[in-house]
Amino acid sequence: MAGQFEATVEIDRPIEEVFAFLADGTNDPKFSPRVQKIEKTTDGPTGVGTVFASTVKDAGMTTRREFRITAFEPSTAIRWTELSKNIVTAGEGGYDLSATASGGTRVRIFNVLEGHGLGKLVVGFALSAARKDADAFGQRIKAAVEVS
Predict the structure, then answer these.
(1) Which of 40, 66, 77, 127 has the most CB atoms around its CB within 10 Å?
(2) Band of residue 2 on the pLDDT scale cut at 50, 70, 90
(3) Nearest to residue 97, comparing CAs of 30, 24, 32, 14?
(4) How far apart are CA 32 and CA 26, in angstroms?
């Protein structure tokens, strides 16, 4: 079973600023407490093909994760896919950004979680937890961008 969670949040910052913050994957620990460490493992500016490697802690388990940027449309969209072979992975995820009338930015984040092997038995629990936290996750992104 695979499934998607998503959240939408409005951030009181211009779209270019929000996009730049989110495009720098090393900012993830500022809004995702599960990310213990993250680094960009490819050279050059972030774009299609950029890979970020992280160490995350979920449900008491520490795992290594790798994500590749699959689409990069400045100021409007970022997409990624997880390369790592964990029991539950994000087969697809992304940010969609749009400017608001007040000069802020609306951000939609989503991830499609997939179970592999034994992960097929637990992906429903992971998805349920992610959905319960989705709005709070969006608020953590908002807070992190607005203080940066």
Answers:
(1) 127
(2) confident
(3) 14
(4) 11
Q: What is the DSSP letter of 20?
A: H
Distance of CA 138 to the CA centre of its chain: 10
3-state secondary structure of 85: coil
Place of tokens 């991830």: 111
* Cβ atoms 88, 115 nearer than 8 A: yes
Nearest to 18 by CA among 111, 90, 103: 103
β-strand pairing of 35-40 with 2-11:
unpaired
pTM (2 d.p.): 0.91
Helical spans, DSSP H, in the chain? 15-23, 119-147
Confidence of residue 124 (pLDDT cuts 50, 70, 90): confident
- Give the pLDDT confidence of 91-112 residue by residue, as tens digits: 999 999 999 999 999 999 999 9
Query: Is the sign of the CA dihedral 18, 22, 23, 29 positive or negative?
Result: positive
